[in-house]
Amino acid sequence: MRKQYRADGLDESELAADPMEQFGRWFAQAALEGAVFEPNAMVVSTADAEGRPASRTVLMKAYDAQGFVFYTNYGSRKARDLAENPHVSLLFPWHGISRQVIVTGTARRTGRDETAAYFRTRPHGSQLGAWASAQSSVIASRAELDAAYEELHTRYPEGEQVPVPPNWGGFRVAPESVEFWQGRWNRLHDRLRYVAEPDGSWRVERLSP
Length: 209
Ligand SMILES: Cc1cc2nc3c(=O)[nH]c(=O)nc-3n(C[C@H](O)[C@H](O)[C@H](O)COP(=O)(O)O)c2cc1C
Hints:
Blueprint: H1 19-32, E1 41-47, E2 53-64, E3 67-73, H2 77-84, E4 87-94, E5 99-109, H3 112-121, H4 124-132, H5 142-155, E6 168-182, E7 190-196, E8 202-206
Antiparallel strand pairs: 1-2, 1-4, 2-3, 3-6, 4-5, 5-6, 6-7, 7-8
Bound molecules: flavin mononucleotide (FMN).
Flavin mononucleotide (FMN) binds near residues 57, 58, 70 and 78.
Organism: Streptomyces phaeolivaceus
Pathway: Cofactor metabolism; pyridoxal 5'-phosphate salvage; pyridoxal 5'-phosphate from pyridoxine 5'-phosphate: step 1/1; Cofactor metabolism; pyridoxal 5'-phosphate salvage; pyridoxal 5'-phosphate from pyridoxamine 5'-phosphate: step 1/1
Subunit structure: Homodimer.
């Protein structure tokens, strides 16, 4: 399982001034090289009010100067955690190119307009799926889920507009720190971390691997 990681490093001199810009560069490379399956898949870790952690994979659907956006059910465990404790960690595990990006920050719900605009881009079946599933709740059987979907499909056949579920929408994670990790030889990896300063600027620090 042990692998020697590639030699090309990450140097302070080549970093963008802003972590979202640097993320954009790496994301483009992850997507281009084809070596990363679903480069927008990220592990979101939350903790409840007592500090109990939970992690799961979600798809990042947008990123901009304000942060990283994903969509989910507002009744799900992650959303309940975030309502109690907005602190969150995101991890992009880009093993195929010996990189990872780790973000810490706080999550806020996206506005309803932004949520609706994204919901409209989803395939009809996924729109119905968002209605059919009370995410993270216990259900009796698969049949119950399929029956809920079938009922919705009868109500909203293909071509019919599906309303945005009120309990479904986005979260935008505003970063407080963003670490860019590049695997290198002999476990002497590069780790450069942007940390937000109170005045809105970013400090970059190098971490020991
Ligand atoms: C590749 C992949 C992508 C996923 N994308 C999403 C997503 O964008 N939104 C979402 O709510 N769940 C997504 N899931 C499912 C979540 O991992 C998780 O099962 C679900 O959100 C419930 O999590 P929770 O009970 O911790 O809230 C994805 C799972 C995988 C494996």
